[in-house]
């Protein structure tokens, strides 16, 4: 089994290897994004347009937990992949143990603090008197289920790092399937009639089912993660720092996403003083749609990362160059395609979320989606560049790429644009910051690929 995975990552045609790892990762991420989308659809149709805003208010906590999970999972996976490439089993084992420990400790800390300061946190996130009750009900139950939530994210990354992308896919499909089945039962009045609280409970049950499956698969003899239950307490303290450093750019990207949600929600409250809840709901829908549309791109880089990490560790630079170049071509084609879909079918997409036919929701919503989606033109270069740097262990470079859009550009621009154009300035900011960050990433990407190409004949000369 180990030889087959080494062959997949290190000797198989890189295009075929990338597709083999990308398809299950992409499918799983689409399904995961789909249940987030369906969750919002059920809440919008079962509870109302305003309740969608409550999910947007609670979303920063979920994004922060996801950010920690991805930080740990990607950091540990990078260490694991490079150790796997050089057959260093001791480092492979330590990376997994340390990741589990970090996930549990951080989840408990976030849950305890979140429950203690729940209402204060929700108002800080942008809640209003019109949606605070919905947001409180939803987030309270989400906080209870943080441990399986974060650990499932970590183990999905580790499974892909050892070449078991199908296991990660099945885990995510189980979670998504359970959530989609339970949502209407828990939310609607013909079922348990629990409303927004029902959506949260359904999500917790689904995340727990997902974690149980992937953890059991990771304990099997078919896994190279080498988990020993009696030795889980054996944590490499030094490795905590390395995992954090490598995965920190992912944390920044996702945590800053949470910061952006908080900023946008509060700017909406400022520039729409009368009943801002509907615009917060519009923003919530745009966020979920963007997440769904962008997931195949993230699935592609999740398939790319273990190949990059393995071949970089093995110094197989020709394979490294070829797989990154091929991923770039696929990413470009995909994002141009979804740009067209967003521009043409924006109104039809918004119709999925409401049966109230609110005129503001159905007019301002599609317009917002169209403006935001224009940024898709170059965003693929930023995603690939950051992910490749992470897989190579270049933490600082990946961090700077992640910061370019969500901190250096977005935050100052959103305050300037909203002061000029009001709430419409929010949508313009998404578009402009994505285009500028994508252009910067494109320039750096071209430089890095030329540098990588120069290494190929040097290696051949020294080994020939």
Radius of gyration: 22 Å
Residues in β-strands, percent: under 5%
Write down the overall geometry.
globular
Work out the helix count: 17
Count of all domains: 1
Outline:
The chain is mostly helical and 464 residues long.
What report would you give on this structure?
54% of the residues are buried. The chain contains 17 helices and no strands. It has one domain. It has helices spanning 2-10, 14-46, 49-85, 89-116, 118-124, 132-144, 146-161, 165-187, 195-219, 237-271, 277-313, 317-344, 346-351, 359-373, 376-392, 395-421, 424-463. The two termini are 31 Å apart. Helices cover 85% and strands 0% of the residues. With 464 residues, the chain is mostly helical. The chain is globular.
Fold blueprint:
Blueprint: H1 2-10, H2 14-46, H3 49-85, H4 89-116, H5 118-124, H6 132-144, H7 146-161, H8 165-187, H9 195-219, H10 237-271, H11 277-313, H12 317-344, H13 346-351, H14 359-373, H15 376-392, H16 395-421, H17 424-463
Keywords:
85% helix, globular, mainly alpha, 464 residues
């Amino acid at each position: 089994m180990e030889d087959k995975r080494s062959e997949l990552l290190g000797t198989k045609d890189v295009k075929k290897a990338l597709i083999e790892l990308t398809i299950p990762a992409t499918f799983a991420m689409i399904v995961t994004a789909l249940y987030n989308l369906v969750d919002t659809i059920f809440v919008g149709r079962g509870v109302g347009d305003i309740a969608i805003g409550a999910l947007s208010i609670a979303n920063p906590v979920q994004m922060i937990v996801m950010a920690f999970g991805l930080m740990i999972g990607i950091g540990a996976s990078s260490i694991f992949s490079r150790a796997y490439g050089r057959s260093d089993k001791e480092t492979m084992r330590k990376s997994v143990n340390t990741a589990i420990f970090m996930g549990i400790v951080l989840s408990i800390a976030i849950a305890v603090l979140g429950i203690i300061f729940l209402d204060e946190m929700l108002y800080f996130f942008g809640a209003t008197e019109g949606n605070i009750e919905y947001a409180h009900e939803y987030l309270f139950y989400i906080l209870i289920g943080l441990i399986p939530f974060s650990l499932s994210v970590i183990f999905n990354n580790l499974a892909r790092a050892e070449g078991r992308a199908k296991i990660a896919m099945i885990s995510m499909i189980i979670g998504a399937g359970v959530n989609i089945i339970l949502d209407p039962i828990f939310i609607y009045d013909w079922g348990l009639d629990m409303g927004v609280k029902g959506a949260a409970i359904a999500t917790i049950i689904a995340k727990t089912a997902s974690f149980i499956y992937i953890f059991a698969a990771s304990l099997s003899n078919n896994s190279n993660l080498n988990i020993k239950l009696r030795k889980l307490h054996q944590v490499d303290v030094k490795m905590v720092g390395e995992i954090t450093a490598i995965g920190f750019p992912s944390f920044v990207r996702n945590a800053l996403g949470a910061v952006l949600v908080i900023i946008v929600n509060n700017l909406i409250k400022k520039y729409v003083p009368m009943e801002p809840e509907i615009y917060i709901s519009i923003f919530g829908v745009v966020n979920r749609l963007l997440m769904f549309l962008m997931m195949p791109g993230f699935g592609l880089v999740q398939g790319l990362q273990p190949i990059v990490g393995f071949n970089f560790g093995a110094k197989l630079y020709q394979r490294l160059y070829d797989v990154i170049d091929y991923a770039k071509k696929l990413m470009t084609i995909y994002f141009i395609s979804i740009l067209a879909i967003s521009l043409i079918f924006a109104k039809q997409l918004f119709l999925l979320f409401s049966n109230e036919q609110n005129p503001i929701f159905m007019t301002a919503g599609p317009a917002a989606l169209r403006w935001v989606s224009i940024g898709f033109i170059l965003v693929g270069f930023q995603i690939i560049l950051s992910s490749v740097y992470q897989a190579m262990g270049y933490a600082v470079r990946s961090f700077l790429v992640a910061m370019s859009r969500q901190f250096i550009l977005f935050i100052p621009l959103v305050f300037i644009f909203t002061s000029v154009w009001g709430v419409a300035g929010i949508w313009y900011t998404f578009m402009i910051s994505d285009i500028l960050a994508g252009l910067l990433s494109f320039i750096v990407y071209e430089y890095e690929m030329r540098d990588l190409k120069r290494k190929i004949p040097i290696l051949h000369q020294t080994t020939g």
